[in-house]
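quick one if you have a minute, typing this from the bus. theres a chain ive been looking at and ive put its sequence and its fold in token form underneath. please have a look and point out which stretches look like helix strand or loop to you. anything you notice is useful, everything is just below.

***
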Amino acid sequence: MQLSLIIPAYNEEKLIRGTISKFKSFLDKKGYSWEIIVADDGSRDKTSQIVKSFRNPKVKLVALGKNQGKGAALKAGFLTAQGEYQIFSDADLSVPIETLEPFLQKLKDFDVVIASRRVKGAEIKVHQPWLRENMGRVFTALTQILTGSSVVDFTCGFKGFTKEAAKQIFGRALISRWAYDAEIVFLAEKKGFRIAQHPVSWVNRKDTRVRLNRVVLESLRDLFAIRVNEMRGRYD
């Protein structure tokens, strides 16, 4: 298996069929082997049923029994993946499908590739609302302070890993919700993996169910939890 594509999903019945179909159509034209893994984070709608309806051995479902958070869903998906290269994409396709190809090329030279909206060559075609965009910048600044990382965009929902890097990182991941991105990068740097930040074209999708006040509090809590986990040796 060359590529595992992991799609975390929570109550995505409006999007998931179209997202899988677009990725499948793109990948069917390629000459390498692949699998699509939808990691359903305890959806209460028909997300899982829609994934099953594809009846394709290359389209797989990992379903969490209850909602645990996007970090938990990603961990379950990556621990199931078999590909030599493993990439996750948000279900809303804020980053275009075509980004898979440059990621696969970079993963031949790097262990981890992170999609970035803040490096040279990146383009934000549709911005988030002012508050959300600037909260993302504050989160990045706090994460850099608390983890010592030089990465400039932690939260873009498109990241790639070699099989070994994914095993090492997601096998140790402990954060289930909002700061999972920061933990992924922290673990990648802690383990000495070679990291590339790849500029992407990005479009904000308006359909969001995120409550900002909850995100702020949980993100701060989880950022400090990363430091505590490190001090207690829980990542060793």
Remarks:
- Strands lie at 3-9, 34-40, 59-63, 85-89, 112-116, 123-126, 158-162, 195-199, 201-203.
- The chain has one domain: 3-231.
